[in-house]
TrEMBL record:
Cofactor(s) named in the record: Mg(2+)
Keyword Magnesium: yes
Xref: Pfam families: MR_MLE_C, MR_MLE_N
InterPro entries listed in its UniProt record: Enolase-like_C_sf, Enolase-like_N, Enolase_C-like, Mandel_Rmase/mucon_lact_enz_CS, Mandelate_racemase_C, Mandelate_racemase_N_dom, RHMD-like
PROSITE patterns: MR_MLE_2
Name of the molecule in the record: Mandelate racemase/muconate lactonizing enzyme family protein
Keywords: Magnesium, Metal-binding
Signal peptide annotation: none
Ranges where the Mandelate racemase/muconate lactonizing enzyme C-terminal domain occurs: 147-244
Keyword match Cytoplasm: no
Amino acid sequence: MARIERIDLAIVDLAPKVERSDAIQSFVSQETPLVTITDSDGAKGTGYSYTIGTGGSSVMRLLADHLCPRLIGRDATQVEAIWHELEFMTHATTIGPITSIALAAIDTALWDLRCRKAGLALWRMAGGARDSAPCYTTEGGWLHLPVEAIVDDALQAQALGFTGSKIKIGRPVPGEDVARIAALREAVGDGYEIMTDANQGFARDTALRRAKALAPFDLAWIEEPLPADDMAGHVALAQASPIPVAVGESIYSIRQFAEYAARDACSIIQVDAGRIGGITPWLKVAHMAEGFDIPICPHFLMELHVSLVCAVQNGRYVEYIPQLDDITNTGLRVEGGRAFAPDAPGIGIDWDWDAINGRTVAEFSSTITKGS
């Protein structure tokens, strides 16, 4: 029985490759905590998560001071037991992003270690439903971009075989959103999906009016139309909206997802492994959603989510937003608009450790061993 002997912590700050803006914020930084777990056989597993520019230091202190020391000497194969123990230990600070981001980095590292030792790719170990999934792109749909740029990007993606494009909405004047979506639909035709994302930027009345105004364009969904904790608002909107409602990137608990599903408050679930607390709870949400015939279209983290979407029966799309190119040796394989799950043992991310070591923030790099 191999036990955890060493944990290495690091964080790198990655600048987005393009300017990213939505209805409530701009993204200028992506803090990426990294956790590498080594067991008594010398096997290693690396996990990660992310912030959108704030909270990284708090995540690293939580990992170093409270979570990782509890792992030393534990049986690394007991992934489920470890996740539940750590979640319970942090119950005073859950449910919330800081704790979930920290748990995600640990849990993903444990899954990477487990898969490597078993000689299996994550998508096979976690279910093995298929080896690839269709992509839609978000990188060309940010709110600040002019309509001409949005159309050009979508046409390029369509030519490459992508399933659709996601466009940020929430312009001050409703007619601006309508004009942008109308121009895009005219350019791409009826066979290409258009997703929209409000990033929690609407009040209840605004969300319903915007959904009705955009209804003629046959949209795949309206994402995060309301604050994520407004359950009653989502129930009412989902019943009245002519467009399917998608939620998930700002939900941090499997129980919250279960309530959304049970109350018919959404039609698409976008659970994010980096925000729900890792692969272990991600799979629980996906299987729960299957019981309600709700598809899984995860938010962000395409390099990890491709394997999870391919693991489960109700995985529908991978969201194309390149994230890790600067710290990996090989990127996500996309052919004909489909993302292919890596078949190498582990979570399938080929880390460039020279690049990582050159970017780490020394203050938050540490090694945890027995007695340290």
